[in-house]
Design a protein that fits this description.
Elements (H helix, E strand, L loop, with lengths): L5 H17 L12 H8 L3 H13 L3 E4 L3 E4 L14 H7 L4 E12 L2 H7 L6 E11 L2 E10 L8 H4 L3 H7 L6 E10 L2 H7 L6 E10 L5 E9 L9
Antiparallel strand pairs: 1-2, 3-4, 4-5, 5-8, 6-7, 7-8
Helix pairs in contact: 1-3
Length: 233
């Protein structure tokens, strides 16, 4: 782990461990690694590790009991911003089954929004995808994503599961996000994909995801059925 200031170190360790919990690498109820093992694994001081663990505990990802030790837990369903929470994780917390269907995935020329939000170069090819997110077999989110050059390793098979898990396995972690929320009305294609009447009001979410250095990773335009899916920002 790159040592560029103790403040950055504990935040980076916190982000990595948080994502390992969110995406199932560390599961609820599992014994959490000891401070000593984390210090050794990441070549960090005890103080740095303790600060990261304290933040994880404060946010509900860990529970620490005297005489028993530290174990993993998941925060309450609405405790996280949707900008950095996996849809699959969200559904799991609520006791539902998540599914992702890839409608399309292809390279396309960078558009003006890619050049502004993803810092893509003119003439550069950008991976784009359209996915339907289902909860208990019912479509609830129509999602159009466009990915930075760094995420060109993504394949259709990776996109059919948890995007953030696929990213994490390659060492990419979402640390922050910007988002704009508004209301849109379903056109014929959107209505068909989401199984709603044409003209239905949908929650529209435009996001840009960033890594810990605030480098853009991907953008996401989501059309969300408010009657089936809700979140708190």
């Amino acid at each position: 782990m790159d040592k560029k200031g103790s403040e950055a170190l504990y935040r980076r360790l916190y982000t990595k461990l948080r994502d390992e919990i969110r995406f199932g690498f560390l599961k609820a109820g599992d014994a959490f690694p000891t401070e000593e093992s984390l210090c050794e694994k990441y070549s960090l001081s005890r103080v740095t590790v303790r600060k990261a663990l304290a933040l994880l505990t404060d946010e509900g990802y860990l529970t620490r009991k005297r005489g028993i030790g530290t174990s993993v837990r998941l925060p309450n369903m609405l405790s996280d911003s949707p900008s950095i929470t996996s849809f699959q994780d969200y559904c799991k917390r609520a006791g539902h089954e998540a599914e992702t269907r890839v409608i399309s995935a292809a390279l396309s020329p960078a558009n003006r929004q890619d050049m502004t939000m993803l810092k893509a170069q003119a003439g550069e090819s950008v991976l784009s995808s359209c996915r339907i997110r289902l909860c208990d077999g019912e479509p609830v989110v129509l999602e159009y994503n466009r990915y930075s050059k760094a995420l060109s390793f993504l394949t259709e098979s990776a996109l059919s599961g948890s995007l953030y898990t696929a990213m994490l396995e390659k060492g990419y972690s979402v640390a922050s996000a910007s988002h704009v929320v508004s209301i849109r009305y379903a056109d014929a294609e959107t209505a068909q994909l989401l199984s709603v009447p044409k003209g239905s009001a949908l929650l529209y979410l435009l996001e840009c995801m960033y890594d810990e250095k605030h480098t853009p990773l991907h953008t996401s335009e989501q059309f969300i059925r408010g009657d089936r899916f809700a979140f708190r920002i």
